[in-house]
Amino acid sequence: MKFAVIGYGGHSKVICELILSQKGNEIIGYFDDKFEEIRLIENTYFGPVLSAKRMADYFHEIKFVIAIGNNKARKAIANKLDILEKYYATVIHKSAIISPTAKIGNGSVVMPNSVINADTEIGLHAIINTGSIIEHDSIVGDFVHVSPGVTLTGAVHLDEGVSIGAGSTIIPNRKVGKWSVIGAGATVINDIPAFCTAVGVPARISKVNEEEGELIDKHSI
Ligand SMILES: CC(C)(COP(=O)(O)OP(=O)(O)OC[C@H]1O[C@@H](n2cnc3c(N)ncnc32)[C@H](O)[C@@H]1OP(=O)(O)O)[C@@H](O)C(=O)NCCC(=O)NCCS
């Protein structure tokens, strides 16, 4: 499978290694606005984000992946590129354990040693980072980032754009509202509303980011 990778930073490095660890995969280009114009260097394209769209004209069966860790930036780029979801790859490391009843959306990545259990639903362009556990019946929205070592116990619901800090735990049947941020090492025992930051054990709201949230909705960045 041929891949075009959008983003050329730290998170992208990890995703590229993951793509290339699977036999038959090849990366034909890297696209990031740090490149001013499209160039072909040793059979690999480097170009600004929007030039990635042209790759679909040159290569049949190409798949795209947005390899950017920041949720808002990932959503902004997905909107800017406006590529049909079916052209985005779902990238899953071979060491991840995925229930046959789990559903994982296009553009999402599942990092090494993660476990995704029965009847979970992972949306589009989500990141399930290294060694995280998504327990049964959980719902993970579009553009969510579940950081390394997180445990979502049963039937946890994360709305769009939520970011869960490394090593956090969320007890069963709790919901985190859209674009909220949970600090590293938190234990979430109550529902967390949208557009908040919550930290600590048990997690308490430390900041309300409503204005930022409204902007995200209005401009759909
Ligand atoms: C929660 C977080 C987003 C807060 O960032 P912020 O809004 O810039 O907040 P600040 O650093 O200004 O800290 C604000 C307060 O929260 C506290 N705080 C910050 N992060 C905390 C955490 N994870 N746990 C407990 N308290 C925390 C700070 O000590 C500070 O307390 P004070 O007001 O009493 O001094 C950030 O600290 C964090 O934990 N990010 C997760 C990073 C991560 O896991 N990344 C994984 C990438 S793969």
What is the number of beta strands? 24
Through-space gap between termini: 29 Å
Biggest sheet overview: 8 strands, mixed
Indicate how many domains the architecture comprises.
2
DSSP helix count? Answer: 4
* Overall radius of gyration: 17 Å
* Mean pLDDT metric: 94
Ligand set: coenzyme A
By helix and strand content, what is the structural category?
alpha/beta
Unreliable spans are none
CATH class of the largest domain: Mainly Beta
What is the CATH topology descriptor of the largest domain? UDP N-Acetylglucosamine Acyltransferase, domain 1
Strand residue content: 25-35%
In spatial order, strands of the major sheet run 6-9-12-15-18-21-23-24
Instruction: Determine the CATH superfamily of the largest domain.
Output: Hexapeptide repeat proteins
**Globular, elongated, flat, extended or rod-shaped: what is the shape?**
globular
- The CATH architecture assignment of the largest domain turns out to be 3 Solenoid
Order of helices and strands: EHEEEHEHEEEEEEEEEEEEEEEEEEEH
Percent range of helical residues = 10-25%
